[in-house]
Amino acid sequence: SRNKFIASVEAVAERRLLRPDPDLDNALANSRKKNLPNISISPMQGQHLSVLCQLNGAKSVLEIGTLGGYSTIWFVKAGARVTSIEVRPKHRDVALENLHSAGLDAEIILGAALDVLPKLGAEKRQFDLVFIDADWGDQWEYFDWAVKLTRKGGCIYIDNVVQEMIYGGASAAENSLVARLGKDDRVTASLTPTISAHKAPGGDAFIDGFVLATVL
Ligand code: SAM
């Protein structure tokens, strides 16, 4: 079946391209043990973000949506200092646990992104890469802050954009995220559709996509 095929492509890619990393495995296992939802990025997506950091020479990354710190660990291992925003104390605690058992460090800020982002703006913080991976409803507002917080030539990666287009009910609307991005002359934005069997054991393949934008 199509799902089986996608799953096997992913499995082969993971087996062939990923280096074994007990810290990342442990972060996922501990997050599962602590009953966090299984909604972190896939291992190959982590490696993709790591490649982006290398291309961009990213030394500072801002992440919106920490969960158990799985993507945080990928960024730290790619050589970046990471500031990550998480609204749920339990998720923040598990993320800190996972980072510390890997001997790694990151700045995890507890709070709702729309409360924290203006504070980072007031402090004139600047990042090389911003990764938006929280709730879908406020993606435009997160993006707008991300532009202000990204240095020129830096990039913004927004995950689950196609999910937002499909389920956000905004696909045709003039104010959907993608419609607004096209009119925003602060950035050049691309959209890459993705298909994954990862989050769909036995279910339908998961169709989604991400926006990658550079800040002009
Ligand atoms: N980036 C993580 C990874 O790949 O390992 C996954 C993040 S998960 C998809 C989304 C996270 O965003 C959840 O932990 C959720 O609690 C958090 N979140 C949801 N709404 C938020 C908000 N308004 N501000 C900050 N975090 C939020």
Explain the layout of strands and helices.
Blueprint: H1 2-17, H2 22-33, H3 43-56, E1 60-64, H4 70-77, E2 81-86, H5 89-101, E3 107-110, H6 113-122, E4 127-132, H7 139-149, E5 150-158, H8 161-167, H9 177-182, E6 187-196, E7 206-215
**Number of separate domains:** 1
| Euclidean distance between termini CA atoms | 43 Å
Indicate the proportion of strand residues. Answer: 15-25%
Q: Do you know the CATH architecture?
A: 3-Layer(aba) Sandwich
Question: Going across the major beta sheet, what is the strand order?
Answer: 3-2-1-4-5-7-6
Order of helices and strands: HHHEHEHEHEHEHHEE
Bound molecules: S-adenosylmethionine
- Helix vs. strand class: alpha/beta
Total helical elements: 9
Number of strands: 7
**What is the averaged pLDDT score?**
92
Radius of gyration from the CA trace? 17 Å
Summarize the main sheet.
7 strands, mixed
**The first-level CATH class name:** Alpha Beta
- CATH homologous superfamily assignment: Vaccinia Virus protein VP39
